Amino acid sequence: MNNKAKTIISLLVLLLIVGGGYYLYRSFFGGMYEPVDINDTSEVQIEIPSGSSLGKVASILYDNNLIKNGTFFKSRVQKLGKETEIKTGEFTLSRSMSADEIIGVITSEKSEDVVETTKLVIPEGFERKLIAERIEEKGLGSKEAFLNATASAADYVAEFPWLQKLNEGESLEGYLFPATYDIPAGATEVDITKQMLKAFQDRMGEYLDREDFNGLSFTQMITLASIIEREIKVDDERPLAASVFYNRIAQGMRLQSCATVQFILGERKAKLTNEETQIDSPYNTYINEGLPPAPIASPGMKSIEAAINPAQTDYLFFVLTGDDGSHTFTSTYEDHLKAKENMK
């Protein structure tokens, strides 16, 4: 083979290498911007919080399987000069969208998918009054308007038929589910109420169709759960506390829950006076047998599950004895008095 032929072959090999390399480069690196799944058009809701960095945005998209690689996505945004144009709020995307299409949505001024929201955190055990105060503190409405919006469960029966289970004239105390909510801009107190009722409905699921809970009605079960929520801090103790209350009900003993008296007072006191435990009210479980007429706060699912599935014990008493909020449970009054010596 002469030198000319060798040169031609060398050039052809070089072209193949360069061309193949370029093809591989385009296939790999270019593929990083292609849709994760071109056939998956199902909607994926994401939220970009205020103050999110480009890296945070890339992580949110990657965690939701909307992009193939966070580093390449950030590089693409920077190359397009869009780094400072990313909006905050909620977006509707899909895995059939390319990186460029996603960038277009989250940087578009006219995007209808962007919804400004405010986070509202409602802890377990909050009364309706405290929820109303929290709403007003967050600038989402007025305390008075929210209390009015939640004063009658009957106002929401058409949308939430299970509310027919509640007693006539009952408020929504106990049914405003404690959770973290994203409240859209412009939402009214009624809108917020419906969002909380929807959360309760979603969490309760098939329990909404059940009529009997260990001899209690649906509303009585939620009432018991609300007392457990207010009395107990340690999750493992919730079923034990439930057993105490069920045992007391079965024996005709008064529940003697401080939380019910605090509900009457409208304040949470470390210790009640003897006079306060004698307040004339159907909610006072120191002077009335059985459960109060309605819930005293919004219970979380752990307290609701405890009310539905109490532990099987012969306990009749419990007293706060641990620095961590734990209690000592006893079956006799004599043992209860001994436990009270370590009362916190």
TrEMBL record:
List, alphabetically, the Gene3D superfamilies matched: Classic Zinc Finger (3.30.160.60), Endolytic murein transglycosylase (3.30.1490.480)
Entry coiled-coil feature ranges: none
GO annotation terms (biological process): cell wall organization; peptidoglycan biosynthetic process
Which residues are annotated as site, described as Important for catalytic activity?
E231
- Tell where it localizes: Cell membrane
- Entries under InterPro entries matching the protein: MLTG-like
Keyword terms of this UniProt record: Cell membrane, Cell wall biogenesis/degradation, Lyase, Membrane, Transmembrane, Transmembrane helix
Tell me which EC number(s) this protein carries. 4.2.2.29
The chemistry this enzyme catalyses reads: a peptidoglycan chain = a peptidoglycan chain with N-acetyl-1,6-anhydromuramyl-[peptide] at the reducing end + a peptidoglycan chain with N-acetylglucosamine at the non-reducing end
Please name the top-level EC class of this enzyme: lyase
What are the record's GO terms for cellular component? Answer: plasma membrane
Which regions span the lipid bilayer? Answer: 7-25
Superkingdom of the source?
Answer: Bacteria
What would you give as a GO molecular function for this chain, any one?
Answer: lytic endotransglycosylase activity
Membrane topology listed for this record: Single-pass membrane protein
Hey, which family's this protein in? Belongs to the transglycosylase MltG family.
Stored HAMAP family: MltG (MF_02065)
Q: Return the NCBIfam families for the record.
A: endolytic transglycosylase MltG (TIGR00247)
The protein's job, in short, is:
Functions as a peptidoglycan terminase that cleaves nascent peptidoglycan strands endolytically to terminate their elongation.
Full protein name? Endolytic murein transglycosylase
Tell me what organism the protein belongs to. Ezakiella coagulans
